[in-house]
Specification:
7 strands; 5-stranded antiparallel β-sheet; 5 helices; 204 residues; single chain; two-stranded parallel ribbon; alpha+beta
Length: 204
């Protein structure tokens, strides 16, 4: 039966190569959007967090975690300890604060050590005043104290699930919008959106 004698045939368009190409573009772009949205939102969802302890802090020996050497670089304004970084000024404050905590611990309990720590604090403060910058003072502390840092990695599974959910929602939104655009292209090209695969019948 010819196409002219069968009105049903006029309601469909045989699938062409560009129909398949558009679908492939939609599927691939949706996958890209899924991964890209997860990568962009990763930090804001705080999936991974770290707790850490410096070797000059109390309880460092008992702190469990991977140990890194702390390093300073003349062209940078921060201290690098493994994966973590801290500004030179914050590092210096943390170091002097640890000495103040140690001083309070010995106050009224061990006068000899109290006086020794107090003297050390005074020496470090004087050294800090003589240094050209916070970075120079940080470098001095790290070399003098051979500072290390231990880090513990924590995964927030609740935030991980939330990140996956939001990424899937964004991916689904992209897929729906792409399919609407695909249907719109079909309508502009054919006057309708009905496309079907062409079946090649063998000679029997």
């Amino acid at each position: 039966m010819s196409e002219k004698n069968n009105p049903q045939m006029k309601e469909y368009v045989s699938e062409k190569w560009w129909h398949r190409l558009l679908k492939v573009v939609i599927y691939i772009s949706t996958i890209i959007v899924l991964f890209l949205s997860a990568a962009i939102l990763y930090d804001s969802f705080k999936v991974v967090s770290y707790t850490y302890s410096y070797s000059f802090e109390e309880g460092y020996d008992k702190f469990k975690g991977k140990e890194y050497d702390c390093k300073t670089y003349s062209y940078l304004k921060y201290i690098s300890c493994g994966k973590g970084t801290i500004s030179a000024s914050d590092f210096n404050q943390l170091f002097l604060l640890s000495l103040q905590i140690e001083l309070k611990r010995y106050k009224g309990k061990n006068q000899k050590k109290y006086k020794l720590v107090k003297k050390i604090i005074a020496l470090y403060k004087k050294k800090k005043q003589l240094m050209e910058s916070d970075h120079k003072f940080s470098e001095y502390i790290i070399i003098n104290k051979k500072v290390k840092r231990k880090e513990q990695r924590h995964i927030n599974y609740k935030n991980s699930i939330s990140l996956v959910g939001v990424s899937l929602a964004i991916g689904a939104g992209w897929f729906i919008a792409s399919m609407i655009l695909y249907k719109l292209i079909l309508y502009i090209a054919h006057g309708h959106t009905r496309v079907r695969k062409q079946v090649n019948k063998g000679i029997g």
